[in-house]
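Table S2 (continued). Query chain:
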Amino acid sequence: MFEYPKEEKKDRFLSPYLEENIMRYTKLFGEKSDLTVRRLQYNGRNKIAVMYIDTLVEKDNIDRFVIHELKTHVKELFESPILDPSILSTNKVVELITDDKITDYFLQGYSIIFLDGQQIAYAAETSGGERRPVSESNVETVVRGPRESFNESWVTNIGLIRKRIHTSKLHVHKLELGEESKTTVAVLSIKDIAKEKIVKEVISRLDQIQIDGILDSLYIEEIIEDPNGYTPFPTIFNSERPDRIAAGLLEGRIAIIVDGTPVVLMVPATIGLFLAANEDYYQRYDFATFLKLLRVFTFILSFVLPGLYVALLTFHQEMIPTPLLIAITGQREGVPFEIALEVLFMEITFEILREAGLRLPKTIGAAVSIVGGLVLGQAAVEAGLVGQSTVIAVSITAICSFTTPSYNIAITARMLRFFLLILSAALGAFGLIFGLLFLFIHLNSLRSFSVPYLTPLVPFHKTNWRDLFVRAPWWKMEQRPDEIAGDNHYRMPPGTAKRNRLHRRNNKR
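Corresponding output:
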């Protein structure tokens, strides 16, 4: 097994001389760095120094709970050979004696207290600094439902989940990943609801990560996902919404929170999870069912329609009604390119416009992508480069791709669109059907932490279909997903749906 190379170093202990310790850490972080040193004097002598990294601490906490308390007890400190940690009003105080530990606590936002004549330092928790407040998500929007979204602080993110799940069974396993970045990663699961086997597998894969830095959750996502070979389909779900992650935890899934990013990972992930929207559970079940069916249909259409359009007009014109075929043929009179090249040209142009809209400032990005698409489409038709029907087919495909709730799987559909388009241009409907069969076989081979990706389609679980393509009423969804849930398999007491049915019948009578 590969071992990440590490420098061999022995633990260095503190010096009993205050100024020597100050010089050591000033040199370590740089003389003109953001390391701050504050000295406390008594009878004209420096005997206490409080050091911290200015950009990682809450300065008000240092003044109120560290400096103020030390000044209040300054006489006692100078007369006593040791510091009593109880005089500090911070949440946590740790005794430290070695260089490496002190450096770690510096980088976590702690204030380190050094005393002259002692080889023990004290780390007081004062972490803070500028953080983005909890706000509404710009990516996962809802009409009805909670508005809060995660921010870049892992502590805040765990708090947002605990505000929704008030139980001691919500367990948090904290890790530190990255040789240089030392990024905090937290694994959340609910005891008895999540399978212990999957929880251990998640922690085991995280423990095996050996990398210099973790700057976003995608680093972890690509390293710990199942070794399925190459697949364009995401096998780890991500979200910025605490309510979505809390709902997943209550189903038996495991959340992975990475410090420094508002995107939280969730495993195991199945195909149905990516096609479900936040609002499905905040609207009436009949309307939510209609939207789910519409969303599944448009998702399939977003990668099948271009290939189907090319196959019908190139190889299977007899399947198109005669009036429609005459209308389309008349529109394409004078167009110099084959239909496949027309569609490919328009699809690539649209992808360029979409990427340009994402990179431009928000105030003009949307306008450029919409106006650019209209102008280019109209200009291409007037110039005789593409037919009007081709512009319509590509536009419908683009609109369908916008209805997909998960950005990850929407990107997958955009890539599959070109794959099926090439097969359809070469073999017609046979190529399209062959491509779809290949995709289904590939999806059936995928696993997300040993859970089949197509669950509950394959393997078939009848009870879980109530929350796949449709959304049954809450009183009917007694059980959690079979492949994911642990020992606690029921959301509500067994037989609740039957009792509710009988109760409504009796009320009607």
